[in-house]
Amino acid sequence: MRGENAVLGAAGLAAFLALGEAAPRLGLVKEAYFPPTSRIADALADELSDGAFWSALGDTLTGWALGLAIAVGAGIVAGVALSVVPHLREATASTIEFLRPIPSVALIPLAVLLYGTELRSVLLLVVYASFWQVLIQVLYGVQDVDPVAEETARSYGLGPWARVRHVLWPTALPYVMTGVRLAAAVALILAVTAELVIGAPGLGSRIAVAQTSQAVPEMYALIVVAGLLGLLINVGARTVERRALAWHQSVRGEVAV
How far is CA 180 from the centre of its chain? Predict the structure, then answer.
């Protein structure tokens, strides 16, 4: 089944690339706005041989990784604290529901005022957007804890942190990993968006420069790199999730199938 899916996926990709090559050459779209796949591939090869490209890629990955790490750590700690401390979740529920829907891009003016085009501007947007993905999943995971297991742990004299470790955490971990996977994708989106709009160093900044200088093939090549980066991050996050949850029934059932 996996081999068949891989073949179908490769065939679909080949058809898409062929369509991208044929459409501008047949005049279906203007080549000035959508160059053929071969020209994009040539531009991508030029980018890969440019040291400035690798520096920009490193800047994007730095903002993504640091922002994601901060968001995951803060989201897990805040989610557990809100769930364990009595009445704290009720006291903060309205604040969370007020802050969570605020689009991260709406904070771009604030980020520019505070930090200009520095890395900290990117981190502000990445952390804000990714934090909620983790926090909400942790809260959902804690809600799923079996009350009988919780009471049994209490009856055996387990303290608060022992209950968190042995009862709460195993139940919440699948939710946490889902939050991390979602946050990883969101972090990349916001990192590239921040670079694109603010002008912070990275792939987004190079895309903006290519667009303003009418270097259309280079612009599409950089967009392809951003897409491939997102694909690799998603695959990596799913791999980590499967390994971290190898004991969980959902993953065991998936492997069996």
Answer: 8
- Per the CB < 8 A criterion, the answer to whether 133 and 186 are in contact is yes
Please give the structure tokens belonging to residue 228: 């491939």
User: How many other C-beta atoms lie within 10 A of the C-beta of residue 156?
Assistant: 10
Q: How far is 250 from 157, CA to CA, in rounded Å? A: 31
Which residues lie below 8 Å from residue 113, measured CB to CB, with a gap of 6+?
none
Question: At 74, which amino acid appears?
Answer: A
Q: Both ends of the chain: CA-CA distance in Å?
A: 10
In the numeric block, the tokens 């792939």 are attached to: 203
Report pLDDT digits (tens) over 102-127.
Answer: 888 889 999 999 998 889 999 999 99
Q: Say whether pTM exceeds 0.85.
A: yes
What is the C-alpha separation between 83 and 133, in angstroms, rounded? 16
Contact present, 78 and 137 (Cβ < 8 Å)? no
Q: Are 138 and 75 in contact (CB under 8 A)?
A: yes
pLDDT digits (tens, 9 = 90+) for 83-108: 888 788 888 889 999 998 988 888 99
The single residue listed with the structure tokens 């200088």 is: 213
C-alpha closest to that of 189 among 102, 64, 101: 64
Give the span between the Cα atoms of 21 and 31, in whole angstroms: 10
Q: What is the pLDDT of residues 24-75, one digit of tens each?
A: 888 888 888 889 999 999 999 999 999 999 999 999 999 999 999 999 999 9
